[in-house]
Structures are given as C-alpha cells and as structure tokens.
Amino acid sequence: MGTYVITVARGFGSGGKNIAIAAGKKLGIPVYYSQIAKMASEWSGLSESLFNKTDEKLRGGLFSKLKSMPSDDHICSPADSKFTSDDNLFKIQAHVIKELAENESCIIIGKCANHILRHNKNTASVYIEAPRRHCLAVIMDEFGCSEEEAALMIKKTDKYRADYYHYYTSGKVWTDPVAYDITLNSGRLSDEQCTDMIIDLIKRKNFI
C-alpha cells in the first residue's frame, strides 16, 4: 500500500482534535496541526509567528471584503513585496501540506487541507461536529469558563474558521457535508467510536 492522508475539520468544542490524535496513535502515523506553521517557517525562512497569526483566520481588510483568493498556487519570491502577505503565507502552508501528502501517511487537522488535497486519490476527509450543548460542556470543562464565555468562544472561533475556509476555497462552505467523505457527530458517538469509524473509512477506501 502507498501513503495516505486523513484530513480532519472540526467544530470548536467537538473534540475533533483529540479524535484525530487518537486515530493517529491507533494507526501509528503522525498528526499535524500547529507543526504546519513551523514547517512552513523552515521551508520559507519566514518567522513562525507570521504563520501563527493567520492560523485559520483572516486579518485586516480581508474580513471586510471576504472575496476569494486568486486561484493560482504560485508562491511569491522573497524579493516580492507580497512575500509576507496572508495569501502567500497560505500558499506556503498549502505547499507543505501537499509535500506531506506526497511523502508520508499522516493526519492533518484544519488548514483547509480537505480542499487543498481534494484532487488527491490518497486522501480521506472527515468533518467532526457536535450539538451546541455538547460543545459548551467540553469548552467549559477544558477552559474552566462560564457557559456564556464558552458560547462566545465557540461563536468567534467557528466564525473565523468559516470565513477563512470561504476565502481560501473560492467561496465554499466549511460545514458542507459534500466537501467530506464522512461527517461524524461526536455528541452522539464517543471519541473511540469516531476514531474507529475514521479507521474503517480508510480501510474501505483500501488505504490500509
């Protein structure tokens, strides 16, 4: 068998990150999320903090316009004034994600990875979500905050993830189930059940 990639998109508070990590442990493959920024930094020579500032979020004027990024994937050179632009930072991360998909089996969380790798036959895409009451409970427990604070965190985080996805996928909807192979409700399924279903998916796609 060749290499394969599992992309995991997740609603805030759904536990999607933990499920992805659990799946990686069971499969014996690495899970990439925050590491993407470091790898993009090493590849480009740009500060890792630049990539962290645009981690699944839009900055400045992009929020007001919410137009789509130009569809070409050309990465600007260091001599170009747009080398540190948000669009170019996204393209650099997309390059890293494509390199990972080509060279090793792994799980990639967020980063529009399902869209970036949409033409790759060795990719399985998963979206994990849960009812608001479940997400509230998870966030309140994890951050020790009130229900009101948790609700605000969920609203803000899901909003900037949705805007980011919309912008960098030419207007596509982050939560559209058609963009994924499967959608899992972690409010009805345990983390272990979600993990097993992800593994079952890649078995059915004959990746392992």
Salient structural properties:
208 residues; alpha/beta; Rossmann fold; 5-stranded parallel β-sheet; 5 strands
Share of residues in helices: 40-55%
Mean pLDDT: 92
What is the 3D form? globular
Oligomer: single chain
Whole-number tally of structural domains: 1
Q: Structural class, from helix and strand content?
A: alpha/beta
Poorly predicted runs of 5 or more residues: none
Distance between the termini: 7 Å
What's the helix count? 9
* SSE pattern, N- to C-terminal: EHEHHHHEHEHHEH
- CATH homolog superfamily: P-loop containing nucleotide triphosphate hydrolases
Q: Tell me the Rg in angstroms.
A: 17 Å
What is the annotated CATH architecture? 3-Layer(aba) Sandwich
Per CATH, the class reads Alpha Beta
* Portion in strands: 5-15%
Neighbour order of strands in the largest sheet: 2-3-1-4-5
Strand segment count: 5
Please, could you describe this protein's structure?
- With 208 residues, the chain is α/β, with parallel strands linked by helices.
- It has one domain: P-loop containing nucleotide triphosphate hydrolases (Rossmann fold).
- Helices cover 50% and strands 11% of the residues.
- It contains nine helices and five strands; from the N terminus they run βαβααααβαβααβα.
- The chain has a five-stranded parallel sheet with strand order 2-3-1-4-5, sandwiched between helices.
- The mean pLDDT is 92.
Structural topology:
Elements: E1 5-10, H1 16-27, E2 31-32, H2 35-44, H3 48-53, H4 61-65, H5 86-103, E3 106-109, H6 113-116, E4 123-129, H7 132-143, H8 147-168, E5 182-185, H9 191-204
Parallel strand pairs: 1-3, 1-4, 2-3, 4-5
Helix pairs in contact: 1-9, 2-5, 7-8
